[in-house]
UniProtKB/TrEMBL annotation:
It comes from the Bacteria. It is found in: Membrane. This is EamA-like transporter family protein. Belongs to the drug/metabolite transporter (DMT) superfamily. 10 TMS drug/metabolite exporter (DME) (TC 2.A.7.3) family. Residues 1-23 form the signal peptide. The keyword Signal applies. The lineage of its organism: Bacteria, Pseudomonadati, Pseudomonadota, Alphaproteobacteria, Rhodobacterales. PANTHER family: ACYL-MALONYL CONDENSING ENZYME-RELATED (PTHR22911), SOLUTE CARRIER FAMILY 35 MEMBER G1 (PTHR22911:SF6).
Length: 299
């Protein structure tokens, strides 16, 4: 997926931490837009449109500077990946308006779990007991975050779960694109197709943004582009099994942003649920890291 660079774990860790901070920043701005902090509450479809619009502009600028080598793209795979990515991003932005950012971010870490499940019918992968155990642990964390006994499941939890399913499906197509095309080509095509989908979807809910809302939309797009660029470059400098755990700090950044800006701090249930989800996701990441050098089957 990218041109390997000289191994530099320290730089890879720093780049991943930056990617996590930037990614959490996008949900913070989405929450500000969706809850009416910057004007009339903005529909998630319009927030998503702004994300793809400004991310495409930012990545186009980076691509023009980097001048990467281009190969013939598989537009079919790109379309499927981009459609799922757009759905995942839109649902995540919608969820951010209903539940604490720490909860929404924690649930988003289920995407590799759903990716693993979808890989069974779509890629023919075998999944053994260790990976199923990891998935069960992570899903238990979501059950905790639903706060059983309250009598109702938060709409935001369902939206975040939908986002995780979409992003898990997106992982399937990212796997199929890996090794075939360069990272900047993938990011550019992904955001271009995503913008096309978002433009068609936003027609029905479009309203003229205020100046602060335009600034927030631009911020979401630029932060997302920065997060993607940092993460891609981190992956080029260290193994995925080393890089992935550092991205879990997005949960810390999300909780910090939510507390400082909105005064919403994670409660005990949020912390326990997030911890359980991260335990399952971490176990899955560890297992995947051990599988890849040897075999693709979970023995």
């Amino acid at each position: 997926m990218f041109t390997p660079r000289a191994q530099n774990p320290a730089l890879a860790a720093l780049l991943t931490l930056m990617a996590a901070a930037f990614a959490a920043g996008t949900t913070l701005l989405a929450k500000a837009l969706g809850t009416g902090v910057l004007g009339a509450p903005m529909h998630a479809l319009q927030i998503s449109h702004g994300r793809f619009l400004f991310a495409l502009l930012a990545i186009s600028a980076v691509t023009a500077i980097m001048r990467p080598r281009w190969t013939r793209p598989d537009l079919g795979l790109h379309a499927k990946r981009s459609g799922l990515g757009w759905g995942g991003v839109t649902l995540m932005f919608a969820a951010a308006a209903f539940i604490p950012l720490s909860d929404a971010t924690a649930i988003s870490f289920l995407n590799p779990v759903f990716g693993m499940m979808l890989a069974i019918p779509l890629l023919g992968e075998r999944v053994g007991p260790t990976r199923w155990t990891a998935a069960a642990i992570a899903l238990l964390g979501v059950v905790i975050l639903t706060r059983p006994g309250t009598g109702a499941i938060e709409v935001g939890v369902l939206l975040a779960l939908g986002s995780a399913v979409c992003l898990g499906g997106e992982l399937i197509f990212i796997k199929r694109l890996s090794g075939r095309e360069g990272p900047y080509q993938i990011l550019l095509i992904n955001n271009a197709i995503g913008l096309g989908i978002a433009t068609l979807a936003v027609i029905w809910v479009w309203s003229a943004p205020s100046a602060p809302q335009w600034a927030a939309l631009a911020g979401i797009g630029v932060l997302m582009a920065l997060a993607q660029t940092c993460f891609v470059n981190a992956m080029a400098r260290a193994d995925a099994s080393f890089v992935a755990p550092f991205f879990y700090t997005a949960l810390v950044f999300a909780g910090l942003y939510d507390g400082l800006i909105f005064g919403v701090w994670p409660d005990a249930i949020s912390i326990i649920g997030a911890g359980v989800i991260l335990s399952g996701a971490g176990l899955l990441a560890w297992r995947e890291g051990r599988l890849r050098p040897v075999t693709q089957r979970d023995l």
